[in-house]
């Protein structure tokens, strides 16, 4: 399951876990502060923002060549470009600073951070174990000519499946990035699965925008999205050559976030170091 639907709102599961961890941390910190100390609620919120800023800054620095020519993309966080380690480093340093300046915060803030991190870590690890290695769905879809094509026929190479629609603004914005990726990453197959539209509509869209997509299939009932547990568009799924899920991305992709997601494929095909002779 990649998303959770709450009434009219669809939220990525990892975002929900993060917000839940923040709520748990706030409640635990408030409860500990009642027994002595200062309430850490405002400090937790500040640390949350610091963590996001540091995670974004770390990602931008790691992929700076892709942001250098388009600096406005640095503040466009819709691509989901965050690095965990830099965010955690920012939170730890911020917490140490807060505790040094306000001794009354140390115990409540420490327990709050511990409880929130424990929940988030265990829940994320459980979700990772659940989704990691999920097989490519046993499903056949139609191509533009009306022929049935089994998803399993794409095994043998790393596979990126983009679930999209022409009426979806972030889908449209990320299409040039994915089109270019088809030639930039020839060892990867990019498969575009359209949701609920006719081949004629998609053909008109591609002709109007000047896009050229090599592999396009049509899912008239949204069955693939249901099988993978995502009701959000766009959703991009990353499968290894054996058809096992190794990653996913909800929302718009940028060049940098796509590059980050494809790195496991690069490592998988990297040649082994030559054996040293005696």
TrEMBL record:
- Which GO terms of the molecular function aspect are on file? disulfide oxidoreductase activity; phosphatidylglycerol-prolipoprotein diacylglyceryl transferase activity
UniProt keywords, alphabetically: Cytochrome c-type biogenesis, Disulfide bond, Membrane, Redox-active center, Transmembrane, Transmembrane helix
- Disulfide bond as a keyword of this entry, yes or no, is yes
PROSITE patterns per the UniProt record, alphabetical: THIOREDOXIN_1, THIOREDOXIN_2
Instruction: Tell me which CDD domains the record gives.
Output: TlpA_like_family (cd02966)
The source organism is: Pseudomonas putida S13.1.2
Top-rank taxon of the source lineage equals: Bacteria
Q: Where are the transmembrane segments?
A: 12-32, 44-64, 80-97, 109-130
Q: Which GO terms describe its cellular component?
A: cell envelope; plasma membrane
Cellular compartment(s): Cell envelope
* Domain Thioredoxin, residue spans: 130-267
What's a GO biological-process term for it? cytochrome complex assembly
Q: Which InterPro entries match?
A: Lgt (IPR001640), Redoxin (IPR013740), Thioredoxin-like_sf (IPR036249), Thioredoxin_CS (IPR017937), Thioredoxin_domain (IPR013766), Thioredoxin_ResA/DsbE_sf (IPR050553)
Question: What protein name is recorded for this chain?
Answer: Peroxiredoxin
